[in-house]
Design a protein that fits this description.
Elements (H helix, E strand, L loop, with lengths): L1 E2 H10 L4 E6 L4 H12 L13 H4 L2 H4 L5 E8 L12 E2 L9 H20 L11 E2 L7 H7 L4 E2 L5 E2 L7 E8 L3 E2 L14 H5 L16 H7 L9 H4 L2 E3 L3 H4 L19 H5 L2 H5 L3 H14 L17
Parallel strand pairs: 1-9, 4-10
Antiparallel strand pairs: 2-3, 3-8, 5-8, 6-7
Amino acid sequence: MLTLRTLEACAKSAGFDAAGAARAEYLAEDNDYLKKWLEQGYQGSMQYMERNLAKRTDPRQLLEGTKSVVAVLLNYYKTEPLPAGVPYISLSGRSKCDYHDVMRQRLYQLECLLRKQTHDELIVSDKQHIFCDSAPLLERRWAQRAGLGWIGKNHLLIHPKFGSFVHIGLLLLNEEVTPYSTPMDEQCGECDRCLRSCPTGALRSPMFDARKCLSYLTIERKEPLEERYTNIVSKHLYGCDICQMSCPYNAHPTATSTEGLQTNPVLLDMTAEDWAKSSRRQKIKILRRLARNEETTTRTDKGKNYESNE
């Protein structure tokens, strides 16, 4: 039997900032919301969102025998500002290492610690059971159900201590956790700072319109950019943190202690002139190559990677 206290202790030992667990079950309300969201075309060119709908709202459809969903968080906030005049790079995109690798390595460490503590076969099978942006699962919803925060008006998970600058990882188990975490209610109240701060209005429609989001426009979008977005996108190279920076729960953030998620020092040395020498496509390649070249983590992927968002 796995207790919540044991899970939290093991997660802390593995280097995570927070952990919780929820019973694996069908998410009926999220299923209805997702269908309506897709019908409106808000996913834009992210066609992968249209696949595996049943698995997205029920982890048991993804991995048979799943009884519990463990969610973990890792703070990635950074304090170092980029040099003046350089195009904006999201805090997540500035990391020394690819956060997927950092998260998966620690998730495997967590799995090993849980096995040692419980002496049980916690894992459903030898299939992939550890995920970080690599499976059709609603990570923010499962983190919310695991008591790690609430989904705010900016559609991001907000943790009461770490705010929204957190990476989410999931681990599927075939054992129940005693007791399961208590889901957290929304605590945004009447605040609408994130809605008012979004420069493109992505948050102002009844549902999140990903097609207008600067993160989507600078990372996911494959089609030529519409003229109305040209000016604002020219100031952003990779991602956007505007709605997060405006959130009161991010007013006093704690800088990450995870080395691989700290700011890549190369980015701090690159000037506006350095960036101006490359095309937008080349700039993004440079950014991704910098993360891959860091050696502070070792990629330990195994099993099938169900779905990538890239």
